[in-house]
Every structure is written in C-alpha cells, then in structure tokens.
Write a structure and sequence with these properties.
GO terms for molecular function: 5'-nucleotidase activity. By secondary structure, this protein is an alpha/beta fold. Helices cover 48% and strands 12% of the residues. The N and C termini lie close together (7 Å).
Length: 228
C-alpha cells in the first residue's frame, strides 16, 4: 500500500472526532441551561440509536436536515416519557448544534496518527456532517491543519455513499482514485461507498473486530501504521 497510496481520506464523526462523548457533554450543558430535568443517561440510551436511524434516513435523502435535527430529539424524549413542549425541542435542537463543537474529545491516537501520516501522505476529510459545524470541530480540536481538503455533503450536493461525493473529493484533491484510501467507521457509507468508486478502504471499528474478513479493518487508529 505504501508505494501506491498518495492521498488518505478520513471520515470525521465517529472516526477521528469522538461524537458520542462530545454529544453527551453538549446535552448535559444545554439541558442544564434550559432546566430540562430528564435523566441524561436514560435519554442517551434512547438517543444514540435513534440518532443513527435518523442519519441513515438523511444519508439517503429520505428526510431533510431540519427533520433530522427535530425528529431525533422528539423521538428520544418520547422514548423516555419526559413531557416537553415542541417549542423547547426546537430551542434545544439549535443550541445543541451551537454547543456541540465546543467539546472536542478525539479518539485515542488521533493526533499521533495524523502527525505520522501527514509526513508521508496528503490527508483529506469527506463528511456527511453539516457544513456549519464540521469546520468548527476541526479547528477547535486543533487538527484542521493536517488536511489539504475538506469535502462535505452540502457542498458536494450528495452524501456518502453516493459516488458523486467521492468524485467531488477527488477533484478537490486533484488526485486519482487508484492512489486514494478512505478510512471511516460506517461500513456502507465510508467503506463500501469508497470501494465502489475505486478507492482502497479501511473500516474503523473501535474496540471491535472487523465485520468482514474481506475488508481491511482496524480497532485502534494507531493500527493504521500496520498498513501505512
């Protein structure tokens, strides 16, 4: 792989940026400032899978951005049985988006592996996340300087795993697909999407074994050194 790859593309949320940890901290803050007395642990128990379900719908253009932002909160509150007005859900939705980038826990090994790889490869981001907060996450976590280009679904016009977002990223990076590697946590959006477009790919499965023996996988970011 070393002689072939020149450009490495990372997903951001759940791959470099520890979304679940940062999300929990954001909810703790906005619930406190808005006097929402729901049990945070119970709320998160419901919210995490609900959020993943909504992102999958959003990924395939079955819901809008505003429907995602409202619906995941509404469903999570309903699941806990906590009574809350719709107006407050909309307030919390906006405050969550504002607050989320203020917390910037990264997966263990992120800074070390980016420093290591940046000396040998050009690094890039491909994300389905919202344009208005992904840049803030990168800057606030102090890893933005590692990346030559940042491709998000809003500017590309489509979301992973649509091939057009990978083609858009290729043009941004001014490189060829045969020289590219995609690394991400989502098997379908990141890995299979990239492979179908002619990229190489590695599945990031933190703390778990790989889901498919035919697909390269790592359980820790520093394990990338075994391939790169």
């Amino acid at each position: 792989m070393e002689t072939k790859i020149s450009d490495i593309f990372f997903d951001l949320d759940h791959t470099l940026w520890d979304f679940e940890t940062n999300s929990a901290l954001a909810f703790r803050e906005i619930f406190g400032t808005n006097n929402v007395a729901v049990d945070l642990d119970e709320f998160l128990l419901h919210y995490v899978p609900i959020n993943l379900k909504y992102w999958e719908l959003y990924q395939y253009d079955k819901i809008t951005q505003s429907e995602l932002r409202y619906g995941r909160l509404k469903d999570a509150f309903d699941a806990t049985g906590y009574q809350i007005e719709d107006d407050l859900i909309h307030v919390l939705s906006a405050e969550y988006i504002r607050c989320l980038p203020q917390f910037n826990h990264l997966f263990e090994g992120t800074a070390e592996i980016l420093e290591y790889l940046s000396k040998k490869y050009r690094l890039h981001i491909i994300t389905n996340g919202f344009h208005d907060i992904q840049g803030s996450k990168l800057r606030n976590s102090k890893i933005d300087h590692y990346f030559n280009t940042i491709t998000n679904s809003e500017t590309a016009g489509v979301k992973k795993p649509h091939p057009q977002i990978f083609e858009y990223a290729l043009k941004q990076a001014n490189t060829q697909k045969e020289r590219c590697l995609m690394i991400g946590d989502n098997l379908e959006a990141d890995v299979l999407g990239a492979l179908k477009c002619g990229f190489d790919a590695i599945h990031f499965t933190p703390g778990k074994s790989g889901t498919n023996q035919d697909i390269k996988s790592i359980a820790h970011l520093l394990h990338l050194k075994e391939y790169l």
